[in-house]
Amino acid sequence: MSARHGRDDYYWSDTEQTHRMRAREMLKAHGAEIKKLYGPDPWLPRILTPLVLLQIYLGYRAKDMGWPTLLLVAYFVGGTITHNCFLGIHEITHNLCFATPFYNDLYALFVNLVVPVPYAMVFKTYHAEHHRYLGWDGIDTDVPTQYEGRYLSNYAGKFLFLTFQVLFYAFRPTVVRTIKFEKMHVINYILQLTFNLLVYYFWGWWPLLYFFISIFLGTSWHPLAGHFISEHFVFVGNGEQETFSYYGPLNWVMWNVGYHVEHHDFPNIPWTRITQLRKIAPEFYVDLHRTKSCPGTLFDFLLQPNVNLYSRVMRERGAAKREKLLPTSTGCMKSVEPHQGSCS
């Protein structure tokens, strides 16, 4: 249980990330059709806003629930809504809800309210780097650290990691790479803390407790939480493929985040149109490995001895120590069109 098994280092790559290369080729072959998919789509706020309001209402009613009822509601309803909010904020921070980035930021702050931690704007900053510098050593905070790989790459460690995924994703950036706080980060903190205080003042601590329990249950052993693992952990091959898609029915409640290869290829295509990308250019995706089951990935990660926290593709060794984030052997960093903008 405690002995490390599987890999003892990452899959190190000396090539440019595959998404940039594939996007260039896809634009050459199908540019006109693909560009029609670009741009925001208004459907997300129409669906997500009622869910946020429902979660606030359930928080208000939490004081009337017994513990068994509260835990069941927090897992099946609150956990699902909260995870939906996380993924909704992911979509929003790509500026895919409104034409103006500022309005996207404001809506992200609203959705953040039912996640009592003010994280939306910080996530936007880190997530932009995750796309631009995918797998870069010390830059991409989505990749587990050496300490996580060294001490959690056994059955007990992997179980701990899967159970408390949200804490690892929340605190890892503060250890790996600090960012400069901007005005929207400060507004996020002020607004969230004000909301939390108002909730406590008028309704007591039960709603906040319900929100936190929903976060934990919705990001732990929850069917939707499998996407954390399925997106970039390498289960097959030797690291030549660094992102994986899931095309199953859970995409209906995950804003199609399962189409993750497609999303990294063209992050400015919204969830309502990302599914069309494979239909336009199937030849670029037909030979890629895919994830068959999103919740099943949790158990595969835990039980497969050859997969652990080192099962990620890394590149640009020592990048965090550079004065400027210039590439070495991984090719030109000149952006292709789908990666331009603040959320590239």
Describe the structure.
- This protein is mainly α and 344 residues long.
- It has one domain.
- Helices cover 51% and strands 3% of the residues.
- The protein is built from 14 helices and four strands.
- It has helices spanning 18-35, 43-61, 67-92, 101-112, 120-132, 146-152, 155-163, 165-176, 183-203, 206-219, 226-230, 260-265, 276-280, 294-303; strands at 11-13, 245-246, 290-291, 313-315.
- The strands form two sheets. It has a two-stranded parallel sheet with strand order 1-4. A two-stranded parallel sheet has the order 2-3.
- Helix 2 (43-61) crosses helix 10 (206-219), helix 3 (67-92) crosses helix 10 (206-219) and helix 7 (155-163) packs antiparallel against helix 14.
- It is globular and about 55 Å long.
- Residues 331-344 have low confidence and may be disordered.
- Residues 5-44 form the Sphingolipid delta4-desaturase N-terminal domain.
- It is an enzyme of class 1 (oxidoreductase).
- Its EC number is 1.14.19.17.
- InterPro entries: DES1/DES2 (IPR011388), FA_desaturase_dom (IPR005804), Sphingolipid_d4-desaturase_N (IPR013866).
- This is sphingolipid 4-desaturase.
For the biggest sheet, the summary is: 2 strands, parallel
SSE string, helices as H and strands as E: EHHHHHHHHHHHEHHEHE
Relative helix content:
40-55%
Give the CA-based shape.
globular
Query: Are there runs of 5+ residues with pLDDT below 50, and where?
Result: 331-344
Topology, number of strands: 4
